[in-house]
Amino acid sequence: MGIKLMRYATIDIIICPNCRFYPLEVISFETQTISKKTTEISIPFCRTYCGLNKVFLTDVESKTIVDCKLCLTVDIIWGLVLCPHCCRWYPIISGLPLLYPNYLKNNRRIKALYNLFEKRFYDALTKFLHRCK
Description:
Layout: E1 25-33, E2 49-50, E3 55-56, H1 68-71, E4 74-82, E5 89-93, E6 96-97, H2 108-120, H3 122-132
Antiparallel strand pairs: 1-4, 2-3, 4-5, 5-6
């Protein structure tokens, strides 16, 4: 059994560690499609918020969301988890969302991961930060 990586459906269960806002946004830079049997899933798969379509499930009819099977076969390798409320961002590095609170970001190893991400995706980060101001 392989490692479960970040998927759009994960956004349904994540809150911002900084301000506790929900829902967060996800932006993917690199994805990987996996072959997985998704015949026995209930639609909609998410309970409250669809991260792929960026809609609350109470706002749409569940039958109109046809991407549930697609959502479960796409792993996000590199991306961003964004909080539109407090403008915090959290990197997705090698499929893992790093949702560290502020007080842990000064850790040497965590800071190195954030610096790696900032260098690789500087343009996307500046675009988000300008949108938050």
